[in-house]
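TICKET #2291
ISSUE: user wants both folds in one file
ATTACHMENT 1:
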Amino acid sequence: MPLNKFKNQLKSANVFAPVDTLGSFDFYNNLICLDSVDYQTFENMRNNHGAKIVSLEKGERIDSNLYYDLEKIVPLVVHEYTHFIDCTSTLWGLNHLSLMNSAYETCIEQREINFHYAKKFYDHVRTLRLPDYYTFKYEGDGSSRPWQWRASIGKLFSSDGQLTNRAVVFMRFSNSNGDDLVRSPLSMVSLLEATAMKHEIFSKLELLNHCDDKFRLVELASYKRSILDYLYNKEITEYSACVHCVANIHSIKDVIEAFSITSAIARLCLNMPKSLFGRIAESNSAYEAIGISGNEELVELFKASLNFFDRGILFYIIVHALPKSQEYTQASLESALKKTLEIFGITYAEYEENGNVEALTTAYFKDGKFHSLNLMAQAGFNNYALLNRFGFNTSYDKVELPEVYLGDCTSIRLFGCKDLPLNELTADDIFDELSIGNEWVKRFAEACL
């Protein structure tokens, strides 16, 4: 059964932490599994709440029973589909698809001179979540809140054990007593989880907005407590590092506001054109923003990281450069992000124009040998053209999305536009075709001494 193989592949990829049990995303094929949901769940939903769901779609109030059933599914679906959007429909995501395509085609062509593409993609996925070496957990009691926070800077190691000239930023946490808790790196997974969690949270808030006022206030207070529990879980601080970074630097007390700002910055970074990284690397304003402009060694580390297109490093710089505000609205945050680009000598028009050019060239797979990837790239480009660059106003019923696996080995299409090319593929179609390339990439990576 493809789903069983899918889950085995996820275990071997080891990108997300073992705490992920409700849903999963595979970076080797961009497929989703809602492990905690089965097909009968949706059948029960239709049978028990059919008319009420129609009322919800009309913007009318819903009762607590429907809310409790929906909140088990909708936020999870939105979270995982946000991973799909980030991995296909941002500039980083289109590059992810391009790397996958180049790697998997070597399996078909079998030209040894091109096998390096397989290793390049393998390393790309392997380092989305930095190896456990970069995370260090102490014995301190994480239940003592609020935590204290500070940043530190180190160097990454190369695959042959040598120190590189690239920086890694660590979030170092201690409890309210000053006891060390954990040191976590800012990685690509940190950015991807920040956007996914934001959209998950806002989807649940949208459900609450359709509930009775008294019920909503009680549930909202409870939900905010559960979000804080997530943020103060020292087992998954690499996931929450970006939000801690933003909340501390900008002195944000409201957890929902912190996620909103963090996600917008992360999406800005995911959509940063490669052609502009060098401009930021050469801008002294970037190093003034993080307070290292007088330290030549650190400047060179950050410059090398930016020239390597390190979006975690870019995120750290943008967070510091973003103007402080007592309270951002969506409009004022979007304006502030555009002004932040200008600090580095980049206009938003340049950001947009360079991005459009990169998206077009990256998504174009000439005579691609994998039908699934061709359609995924086409969908990714279409979604990129449709979506706001900072992730505002994302509507999942207007973009192209694939089927998802459910925990009972069935599959279903939940959101997304109908009658578009990606819809011709089932989850099994995608998995079966791309497994050939996936298995080849991992096999070849083992051969690299």
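ATTACHMENT 2:
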Amino acid sequence: YTVLVFMTQRLLWPLTDLGQTLDLYQRAMASTRRIFSLLE
């Protein structure tokens, strides 16, 4: 049972990391768009 929990955590941590990275990326893209619209 402990091994199952451990393996599940090992699988889920990268997924949460990926989610945070995608969120950050989307925010960065939105900011970039805003900056470019100000420059035009």
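RESOLUTION: both attachments delivered.
EXTRA DETAIL ON ATTACHMENT 2: The chain has a mean pLDDT of 92.
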